Amino acid sequence: MFPFLTGLLGNIITLIVVVTLSVYFVVDGPRIIGWLHLKTPATQRGTITFLLSTLDQSLGGYFRGSLLLALIGALGTGVGLALLRVPYAALLGALFFFLYFVPVIGVYVIGVLCILAALPQGWVVTLIVAVYITLLQGVVIGQILSPRIFSKTVGIHPIVALFALFAGAELFGLLGGLLAVPVAGVLQQIIVALWHRWKQEHPEQFPPEEPPLQPSAQLPEQQVLPFRAAERS
Length: 233
Known about the structure:
7 helices
């Protein structure tokens, strides 16, 4: 029991620190980038500014996307439970908003709380609530909305965002699930920038593409001549 409480407390502290740093970086990101730009040697300013801007875009986009998903989940939970006449529907919706920022653990906690709140309404309503919360969290938010929203706010493909979420949570637990998408966004921007630099430094490796030939130009001469003969006659 004691190791479990210690691990839970450590995860909560990690979550608070990461969220706090993310909020400060999102709010003061442009000022931090400007200050470091002035303090960086002139020869390295371009690289440092690019890295900081990429980090600011990824963290800020991830934070905005998480807020939007938490709001959608909170409204879906509160409205759905209210329609099923489950007690404390508004409170459970508010709890969903805050627990959404706890990767892996948060969705299970809010699911259990919703099922417990529905027990006084009978087993039919409880079963409906269990199915509804599972579909809302696992399918609508987890599989459909989350990759698409993060692909817009962070700038990565939905498949990459979905893979990053699963891989980060599986390999590094709470912290990995929380930072997987912004880290994937930063890595993608760096790889794309390196690729464009390689293309600029080695233009001979990327010859310009020739425009496609017209259909008439692709016909052999022996097929064109009969048409010309017919026109002359």
